[in-house]
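Methods: example folding runs. The two proteins below were folded one after another, and each record is reproduced exactly as written to the output file, sequence line first and C-alpha cell line second.
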Amino acid sequence: MSYKLEEARNSVQQRIVKALREYRNLYAVQHRLGGRMIYPESLKLLPLYGLALCKSIPLRGGYADAQLDERCAAGYTMMSLPVKNLLKLLYPSLVRVDEYLLKASSQADELDTSRLPVTAQSLDSRGLYIYDDGLHFVIWFGKMLPPDVAMNLLGGDFATDLSKVNLCEHDSELSRKLMKILKKFREIDPSYYQLCHLVRQGEQPREGFFLLQNLVEDQVGGMNGYVDWILQIHRQVQQNA
C-alpha cells in the first residue's frame, strides 16, 4: 500500500515477466521455442492470478474507484487468508445452476460444479448463476430466466427490487434444491459463512458493483482483459530473452 496504484500493478506484472523469462532462458534450447511462451506446470496460472491481483480492490483502478478504507480493509483480509482461500477470492467460481434445478429429482445427477471462466461471455441471459469468492455468494438472475423459476425461488418477491429480498427456503422443489446447493458450497470451508447477494441482469449499479466489476477476465474500468494482459506479458518475456 506504500506504492502508487499504477506502480504496484506494474510491479506485479514485472515479477511475472521476470519469472517466465528466467524459465525461458533456462529451457529455450530444450523446447525449441520459436515465438512461443513456455512455463512449467506449476506456473501455468501465474499470469491469471497476477491479473486478478491487479484487479482486486486494493490495487484496482485509480483512487476514485475505491475508498481508501475499503482498499485497506480488503488488503488486510487478503493478507490474513490461507493461500487456498486467497486464490479463490482472487479468482472466484462461477457455476450455472438453473439447468440442474429444472431437472426432475428422478433425473437429476450431481450438480456440475466445474468452474466457468469469470467473464461476461459465460453468462447466459436465460440462466441462473452462483458467483462464489469464498466470502460472499452473488446469485445472478438472467433477464430472460423464466418468471416461474424466479417465483419458485423468491416467492412473492420475485418481481421486486432484489436489494430488499432475503433469500430463504420456500415451499417448492426448486427452492429446496438451491438451498441445498448453497449449503453444500458452505460446507466446503465451514470457517466462513457466505452471505447471499441477489442480482438481476441489467439492474445498475447493483449488478456492476457485485458482479460485473469483479469479472476478472473482462476489460473493466480501463484495465486489460485476460487476452490483452497475456499478450502484453508474452511480448515483454520475449524482449531481451
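Second run, written to the same file directly after the first:
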Amino acid sequence: MGVQPVRDNPQLPMPIQIFESWMFCKPEAGFTELEKKLKSFSQKSAVLKEVLLEFKENLRFELENDTGDLSLDPDTANPYLVLSEDKRSVRLRSAPQELPANPKRFDYSFCVLAAEGFVAGRHYWEVEVGDGESWVLGAARESVRRKEKIDFAPEEGIWAVGLNWKGKNWDQYQAFTSPETPLSLCERPRKIGVYLDYEGGWVAFYNADNMAPIFTFTAAFTERIFPFFWLFYVGSSLSLCN
C-alpha cells in the first residue's frame, strides 16, 4: 500500500500532516548546497583545531622550562605562609609562625618569592592552582616593597594575574593592571603557565593544560625578576609543577 498524500488523510492530526508533508518533500537545491558547505566547514575546523593544539604543544616545549629548577625562598615568606619540605608548595595558615627578622621577608602581605631570579633570557614555569578560591601569581622585581601593604600592579613592580577575592563575583579572574582588567576565561584553569622574556619585556600567562593564552604584560625590566606568589584564604595553597 503506497503512502497517501496528506490531502487524502484528513483524519491525521495537523502536526502529523505537516510532518509527513515535510518528510516526502524533495530537498531544495539551496538546502543541499548549504549542507555541503557546513560539512566542509566542520571538516576544516577539525583540522584547524589539530594544528592549533600541535602549535601549543610545540610552544610549551620550545620555552625554556624552569619549573623543575625553581624553589620557594623561606627568607621571603610571610609568617602566615608554610612551605613544604621540598620548598615547592606554599600554604596559608591561621596563625603566624615565630620566624627570625629578615629584610627579604614580606611582613604585611601573604607573599613569597622563588629563590631563583632572572636578569636575562626567556623563562617558563607552571603553578598548580587547583580549586583554590583566591590567589595571585606572576613575577615581581627584586625591589618590591616587603614591610608594608603592597598593591598588585606594574607600578609596584608586580606583573600578575589571579582569582578575585573581593566584591560579589568570587569567580572573577583578573589581570592586575591599573585599574584591574577582568578576564573572561573559557574554562577554569588548574595550572597556570608563566612566560618571562626579560629582553623582550614580556610576562605572559597561559592555561598550562591547553596553552590557551590568558594575558600578556609588557614592561622594561631593569633589575632581577622573581616568580611571585600570594594567597588569601586559610588552608589555600599553590605548588610549583614538576
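Comment on the second run: The chain has two helices and 13 strands.
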